[in-house]
Write the structure tokens for this entry.
Amino acid sequence: MSRKLVMMSRKLIEVIGMDRKEILQKAQRKKSNTLDEMELQVVQKGNGIAMFSTLVLCLILMIIKIIANQPWYDVYGIVFASLGVQHLYKGIKLHQRQEVTIGIAYSVLAILIVMWYIMKIIG
């Protein structure tokens, strides 16, 4: 904790001592493949909207399949696969064991559901 505090203090002193030209040069040297806060928020909101629209589409398909008296487990497979990948990615990137565990559980459940669906369709 104290090491982080020392590093943050040094960085703050470095920024305070910089003039406008130095700050501008440092900002221009920033890697082009990194997102700023606004871009990151846009990406996160876009991912949320995409996930919600996938859920709504799966719900509509599930209702249609129930009405048509067809198996609808494939829709559950899609939802659980999507949730599994989302939790796995978050857990791996942020080093959160609980998220990885949840992601693995959702992914295994998705695989089992899709296998069961395929076996039901094939006969």
In short: The chain has a mean pLDDT of 82. The first helix runs from residue 2 to 16.
